[in-house]
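Fill in residues.
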């Protein structure tokens, strides 16, 4: 499975196309503002919210520092309780394990709990190649699947769709996948939810195998945890005979006491609720209750690569709440598809380069630049990830990865030209005088505020000024001012005038 969505261009190109879709922008603005306002209200109720963020960050950092110990403890606890543990270095190994379990039982259809890890590894597509259908049971994921679409949000994958579009998808596509939507289906949320409920009920009752991820994995007990709002996860985790859970190795927490901390942070940050309607926990196999065969796939998928970066490894604290997406002015205007990944928004802009590396894929390399660095994402992160700082850090790594390219990027050429000019005082002086002259030219008449002078640059500089204001150069440089006002004056004179302090 490729790192990014097949056929998706780098972020600047995809973002430009998304900005041209007014319906998409309306859908995104409405949805993100609603979630943002709900989150702000419930977070304001918690007096020690900032202390909780600091505590959560400390727990995650300590766990990551001793990840090998906690993972071995988790494996031992899971095995002791009847689960089978598999270690997967990458997506292909993880997909192979899940496919082998299904094939070993002669299963050709599985039901799925919403899972970012299984989307990350392209599990649905891998199972389809082996003749196994994967049915998404989360409402938003079902919408995306039936519409042959791509997810565009971590929490609400179908955030880019409105109710009318969802109704049309259900009418056109449900019958091919199972129970058809009612002929008189309207776009009322209750009716859409009921159509999905009836469609999925048949799947739940006939499924022999389920696939899940996990929000958390408790090392001391071997307990996996899924939090959700609809109840579909509970159905998947209790009804089928076989359960396979694909879990990123960063999801481990040492103890149940630590779990309590994160369950206070996650619902408020994600859905704007004080607690999730459904919090499901399962610990291995319980005879006569729930799945009688449990497999847990512990996925690396580049996480050890991220762990090796002493600064950016804090991104592995992420609990997939999506709060950073909902406050991001860039995401709100272009949506998740522009990021070409199952992890969109600010967290995706740092996670994807960390998990996959930089320097070989233009789409991945473009992601750290998909930000204004306004800092809102870092302010709302419930585990205090310095997302803006990591974005800058990853930009540095992208630049370093391309220093030896035979064909340097325009940015590199611009920096070389600047270095050549600034390395010699005479060249710098000539550039200053040229800039001053450009500032006096009447090219900008009619501009707001009566601006005049050069307000744009010719190609290739137009790639910069096409989206940014070009500051008007000063009429006199500092060097010229210093020479004119008497740089050799005595200590009682500052700038050619008496110092009257």
């Amino acid at each position: 499975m490729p790192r990014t969505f097949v056929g998706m261009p780098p972020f600047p190109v995809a973002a430009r196309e998304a900005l041209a879709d007014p319906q998409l922008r309306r859908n995104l603005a409405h949805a993100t503002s609603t979630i943002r306002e709900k989150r702000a209200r419930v977070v304001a109720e918690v007096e020690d919210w900032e202390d909780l963020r600091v505590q959560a960050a400390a727990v995650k950092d300590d766990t990551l520092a001793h990840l090998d110990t906690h993972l071995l403890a988790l494996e031992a606890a899971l095995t002791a309780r009847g689960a089978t543990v598999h270690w997967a270095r990458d997506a292909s190994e993880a997909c192979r394990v899940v496919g082998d379990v299904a094939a070993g039982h002669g299963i050709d259809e599985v039901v799925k709990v919403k899972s970012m890890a299984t989307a990350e590894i392209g599990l649905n597509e891998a199972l389809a190649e082996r003749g196994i259908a994967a049915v998404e049971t989360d409402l938003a994921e079902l919408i995306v699947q039936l519409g042959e679409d791509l997810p565009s949000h971590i929490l609400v994958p179908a955030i880019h769709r409105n109710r009318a579009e969802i109704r049309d998808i259900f009418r056109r596509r449900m019958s091919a996948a199972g129970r058809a939507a009612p002929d008189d289906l309207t776009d009322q949320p209750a009716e859409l939810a009921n159509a999905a409920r009836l469609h999925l009920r048949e799947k739940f009752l006939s499924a022999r195998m389920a696939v899940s991820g996990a929000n958390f994995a408790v090392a001391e007990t071997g307990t996996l945890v899924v939090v959700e709002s609809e109840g579909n996860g509970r159905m998947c985790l209790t009804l089928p005979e076989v359960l396979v859970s694909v879990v990123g190795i960063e999801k481990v927490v040492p103890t149940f006491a630590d779990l309590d901390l994160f369950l206070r942070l996650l619902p408020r940050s994600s859905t704007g609720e004080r607690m999730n309607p459904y919090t499901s926990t399962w610990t291995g196999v319980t005879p006569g209750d729930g799945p009688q065969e449990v497999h847990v796939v512990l996925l690396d998928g580049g996480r050890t690569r991220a762990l090796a970066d002493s600064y950016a490894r804090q991104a592995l604290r992420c609990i997939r709440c999506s709060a950073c997406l909902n406050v991001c002015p860039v995401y709100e205007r272009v949506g998740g598809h522009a990021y070409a990944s199952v992890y969109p928004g600010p967290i995706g802009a740092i996670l994807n380069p960390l998990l996959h590396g930089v320097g070989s894929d233009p789409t991945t390399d473009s992601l750290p630049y998909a930000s204004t660095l306004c800092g809102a994402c870092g302010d709302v992160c419930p585990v205090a990830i310095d997302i803006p700082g990591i974005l800058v850090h990853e930009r540095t790594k992208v630049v370093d990865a391309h220093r030896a390219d035979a064909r340097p990027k325009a940015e590199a050429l611009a920096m070389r030209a600047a270095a050549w000019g600034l390395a010699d005082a005479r060249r710098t002086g000539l550039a200053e005088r040229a800039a001053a002259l450009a500032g006096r030219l009447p090219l900008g008449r009619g501009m707001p505020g009566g601006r005049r002078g050069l307000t744009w640059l010719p190609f290739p500089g137009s790639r910069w000024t096409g989206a940014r204001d070009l500051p008007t150069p000063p009429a006199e440089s500092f060097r010229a001012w210093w020479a004119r006002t008497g740089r050799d004056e005595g200590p009682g004179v500052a700038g050619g005038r008496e110092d009257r302090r």
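The domain at 48-304 is CATH 3.40.50.10420 (Rossmann fold).
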